Automatic annotation (TrEMBL):
Protein name per the record: SulP family inorganic anion transporter
Bilayer topology annotation: Multi-pass membrane protein
Pfam family, one: STAS
STAS domain segment(s): 432-533
Length: 538
């Protein structure tokens, strides 16, 4: 169910809803202006490419996504990945990787994988987002303090270079940086300015000051990138030879994975704020379509933007119209105000990204989880964060998920119990020696050892195994059960299974276990099993 159609069915395209959504679109468009340029520059591309991305993704995701309040565009989460791709494959490689990631996201949506993303554990999400926030923060020191170009490939190399050169900072650039940072944060402290976007306030003030004073040592968009072009470029298909596609499969998958996580998290936030319910599969398809079209117009990777989506909802946005208007505002900026952007200081954009990095890191949630969550979760969070910063985002997410799964399996295996069951007094004392056991918990590969130990714990003539509290069983555990039954028969011990539900019984039948037991040794419950033992003894 695409957002545009969902909004139509809900009557949100009616004229009575126009005013609130147009106002929301105007406000979020103003908010998106500095962010789009800042994210583009930090990703290693030109500032106008961030605007192209926000325009294309803003329209496509608003109309064809799965959330009618989602606002999409370039985000801080992508900076680390995109800048790495640009450094290794160039801007053309980035655009091809973005297009490939868009196709992957479309495939995710068509394959209905939207619900799978929710299974990524919170410590992993907090770990890699906090790690990305740290990388963004340190990555903006050069522009914020006016330092030389940073060499080195790894984070620790760049950090050490910046620390060694920090005494050589440019005071004018640093003053602009701290002044801009204060203006970004000012509306949070002054009630009169509460409705003014802090990034826009800093952008306008710093640009006017540089336009009047023209400090020669201050790096600006004009001195670094030239003037912004007016309007959108003509669509152009990127070079997509096989020799270029193969090396970009890994980076494209990284973009797709992070885009899926980020967009669905944003959709959940918008649902909680607006009282709506998104379609996760349609959301993935819409995000994929946006990332296919964006690079055709010179854009970069895009995803749902939590801050801009929240701003739109707080400003009255209830329908895709808000996202479309936000894109039109940015088109208007390109057509009318592009020449004024040449005086925007890079230190101001760095200050904006400082705040983005802090918000992205969610330090309060990280601290709370480390202090109050189980120790294993805190370790997984810390390890994911460190691997994100010092190794690679994909490595960090993969290892974090694997460790989380292993920890979960250990906890699940510990919860599986094969416990003795009391035999009723009605069983004659001179009959066969009977042991009854009950499996409590899922029979899966990590619970095989308790099952084997229970079979061999005490000698008996008859072993009754109750499966009425086993919710499911996998092939490994069923094979182990079959092996133990065969070994028990060799030792002369009769085994009776009872209480298994229809699914487990079907699996036992396919494994050949029921044939090995015979019809009398598979019973519906413990009473029937004991009755079968009594009849055999009689």
């Amino acid at each position: 169910m695409f957002a545009a159609r969902e909004a139509w069915k809900a009557g949100l395209w009616a004229p009575r809803h126009w005013a609130g959504n147009i106002v929301a679109g105007l406000i979020v468009g103003v908010v998106a202006l500095p962010l789009a340029m800042a994210f583009a520059i930090a990703s290693g591309v030109k500032p106008e490419q961030g605007l192209y991305t926000a325009i294309v993704a803003g329209v496509v995701v608003s109309l064809f996504g799965g959330s009618r309040t989602q606002i999409a565009g370039p985000t801080g989460a992508f900076i680390v990945i995109l800048s790495g791709i640009v450094a290794e494959h160039g801007v053309a490689g980035l655009q091809l990787a973005t297009l490939m990631a868009g196709l992957m996201l479309c495939a995710f949506g068509l394959a209905r994988l939207g619900g799978v993303i929710r299974y990524i554990p919170l410590p992993v999400i907090l770990g890699f987002t906090a790690g990305i926030g740290i990388i963004i923060w340190v990555g903006q020191w050069q522009a914020f303090f006016g330092l030389p170009a940073v060499p080195g490939q790894f984070f620790h190399e760049k950090l050490w270079f910046l620390l060694r050169n920090l005494p050589n900072l440019d005071w004018v650039t640093t003053a602009f940086g701290f002044g801009s940072l204060a203006l970004v944060l000012l509306p949070r402290r002054v009630s009169v300015l509460r409705r003014v976007p802090g990034p826009l306030l800093a952008l306008v003030a710093a640009t006017l000051l540089q336009g009047l004073c023209q400090f020669p040592q201050l790096a600006t968009i004009g001195s670094t990138f030239g003037e912004l072009p007016r309007g959108l470029p003509m669509p152009q298909w990127p070079d997509s030879g096989l020799d270029r596609i193969v090396p970009l499969i890994g980076p494209a998958f990284t973009i797709a994975l992070l885009g899926a996580i980020e967009s669905l998290l944003s959709a959940v936030v918008s649902d909680n704020m607006a009282g709506t319910r998104h379609d996760s599969n349609a959301e993935l398809f819409g995000q994929g379509l946006a990332n296919v079209i964006s690079p055709l117009f010179g854009g970069i990777a895009a995803t749902g933007a939590i801050a801009r989506t929240a701003t739109s909802i707080r400003s009255g946005g209830t329908a895709p119209l808000a996202g479309v208007v936000h894109a039109l505002v940015l088109v208007l900026v390109l057509l009318v105000l592009a020449p004024l952007a040449r005086n925007i200081p890079l230190a101001t954009l760095a200050a904006i990204l400082f705040v983005v990095a802090w918000n992205m890191s969610e330090a309060h949630r990280v601290v709370r989880l480390v202090r109050h969550a189980p120790r294993a979760d805190a370790v997984i969070l810390g390890l994911t964060l460190l691997l994100t910063v010092f190794a690679d985002l994909v490595v960090a997410v993969n290892i974090g998920i694997v460790l989380s799964v292993l920890h979960f399996l250990r906890r699940m295996a510990a919860s599986v119990d094969v416990a003795p069951v009391a035999i009723p007094d009605a069983v004659p004392e001179n009959g066969p020696r009977i042991r009854a056991l009950r499996v409590r918990g899922p029979l899966f590969f990590a619970a095989v050892e308790p099952l084997r130990a229970a079979f061999r714990a005490e000698p008996a003539d008859v072993l009754i195994l109750c499966l009425d509290q086993a919710p499911f069983a996998d092939a490994t555990a069923l094979q182990a059960l079959d092996d133990e039954i065969a070994a028990a028969h060799v030792r002369g011990m009769r085994v009776i299974l009872c209480g298994a539900d229809a699914r487990i019984r079907a699996k036992l039948n396919r494994m050949g276990t029921l044939s090995r037991l015979g019809g009398r040794d598979f019973q519906p419950d413990l009473a029937a099993a004991l009755d079968a033992v009594g009849r055999a003894a009689g």
